[in-house]
Design goal:
By secondary structure, this protein is of the alpha/beta class. The chain has 16 helices and 15 strands. It is 36% helix and 20% strand. The protein binds adenosine-5'-triphosphate and magnesium ion (MG).
Length: 417
């Protein structure tokens, strides 16, 4: 990696703890703001510098959302950076531990934790720490963060946080950012301009990947509510088509409901773009009759016709319908990935860069795009549970079939997933 001179904001994050700094009396630092704005890179480096200058023979915690995300996003680039200035880094992978020392300094121990990994809070429970670094703290449970902070009993210990904005009711915003003076935390807000490695072109490309609430959070770096339409970028002009192209591959996605509506969509691929060719939507309440799994299966067969459908992606909670499809033996039935928020982000990305579009005959989908909204004022981001059936089957399709690791949008969001 080719390093560039740190930006002014990065220099503040790098040096706030030094005795000459006007901010050295603070006990903690919080860096929040836009994606790719250079927070993790500078703050993790500053954390190890601080630990190495101030301590020897102590233990520290480096925490990410999961240990594997931490290793990928933080540890690998950090090792390279430390190596380039003469630090020694010894890895103890089985123990999830790094031993680090600066030239002619003493060794310190840096334990790696994934805040969302099972049992993380109990693993950190017995430790005595001189400092904790939290990467993407807003994605960790408060219980884990509180437990880690409670372990910092060494004199001079400090807390280091960074994250992207979320909902303004989020515990980290209300407990730490809003109470930063009371908590004696130094606060720095980052924008993409604070990363000297991003050219204006790349900044513009990131800006184009997001819209609506995700644009305000991940590009503008604001802590804002998810409000209004979930997919404000959907437009008839851009996403609705009339003439069927020649399709190469097929999938079906299903949101299963017996009391609630059941929605099925047939997808065809043509030149890298997925087309929702046709759909069926059955609302038992409206029709006054509930269908059995067998009747739904016949609907599915009618939707597929004679096409070679590669798989049917089904709502993972619909165990009986998944079993029914498998028993018939014609289709491969796959349970869908069902993380709602990352799925919604994935659909936003697919709409944004035109990888999915909808045939004009799919009237229930077109109606729901205009009606599917966020729950306003909710403590956590959540879409309202209405007008969401075609929306759910589309989300299942996109998160299960479209989400490719090398795709630009998902590289951008990988840090959060
Ligand atoms: N001074 C610099 N010189 C070279 N590359 C840099 C510099 N600062 C940041 N980068 C690079 O820019 C990219 C984004 O930086 P980083 O991961 O620190 O951003 P971030 O704010 O943590 O992003 P996210 O919110 O998406 O996690 C990384 O590849 C990082 O190595
Ligand atoms: Mg980061």
């Amino acid at each position: 990696m080719k390093f560039q001179a740190f930006s002014e904001k990065q220099r503040l994050a790098l040096t706030w703890w030094c005795p000459q700094s006007p901010y050295c009396e603070y006990d903690a630092i919080i860096c929040d703001g836009a994606v790719r704005s250079g927070k993790t890179c500078v703050l993790s480096f500053a954390f190890v510098l601080w630990a190495s200058v101030e301590f020897s023979g102590q233990s520290f915690a480096l925490c990410g959302k999961t240990r594997s995300a931490l290793t990928r996003n933080l540890v690998e680039p950090l090792k390279e950076l430390l190596g380039s200035i003469g630090f020694e880094v010894v890895e103890k992978p089985g123990e999830h531990l790094l031993l680090i020392r600066m030239p002619s300094g003493g060794w310190n121990r840096f334990y790696l934790f994934g805040g969302k990994d099972e049992g993380a809070a109990s693993l950190i429970q017995g430790m005595t720490l001189a400092g904790v670094f939290f990467d993407e703290v807003a994605l960790m449970p408060k219980s884990f963060v509180d437990q880690a902070l409670a372990r910092c009993s060494v004199n001079g210990s400090r807390f280091w946080f960074n994250c992207n904005p979320e909902n303004p009711y989020h515990w980290f915003y209300t407990e730490w950012i809003q109470k930063r003076e009371e908590k004696r935390a130094y606060y720095l807000h980052f924008t993409m301009e604070d990363n000297p490695a991003l050219s204006p072109d790349i900044r513009a490309r990131y800006a184009h990947l997001y819209s609506g609430v995700f644009y305000r959070r991940y590009v503008l770096g604001e802590w804002v509510h998810a409000d209004g339409l979930v997919y404000p970028m959907f437009s008839k002009e851009q996403h609705v088509y009339q003439t069927h192209p020649r399709y190469e591959r097929y999938y079906i996605s299903v949101d299963y409901g017996t009391v609630n509506p059941c929605s099925m969509g047939l997808w065809g691929l043509c030149r890298g773009r997925w087309y929702r060719m046709r759909e069926c939507y059955y609302a038992s309440r409206r029709e006054g009759v509930q269908k059995t799994d067998e009747q739904y299966y016949r609907m599915l067969e009618t939707l597929a016709g004679t096409l070679p459908v590669e798989a049917v992606i089904v709502d993972p909670s619909a165990a009986s319908f998944l079993a029914c499809i498998r028993e018939h033996g014609r289709f491969t039935a796959l349970p869908a990935k069902n993380d709602v928020l990352s799925g919604i982000r994935a659909v936003c990305g697919a709409l944004q860069d035109g990888r999915i579009c909808i045939h004009e005959s799919c009237t229930d989908t077109l109606r729901e795009f205009g009606q599917y909204v966020w729950q306003s004022g909710a403590l956590q981001d959540a879409p309202k549970k209405e007008h969401d059936h075609a929306m759910d089957d589309i989300r299942y399709f996109v998160s299960t079939i479209l989400q490719q690791p090398n795709d630009g949008f998902f590289v951008a969001s990988a840090a959060r997933s």
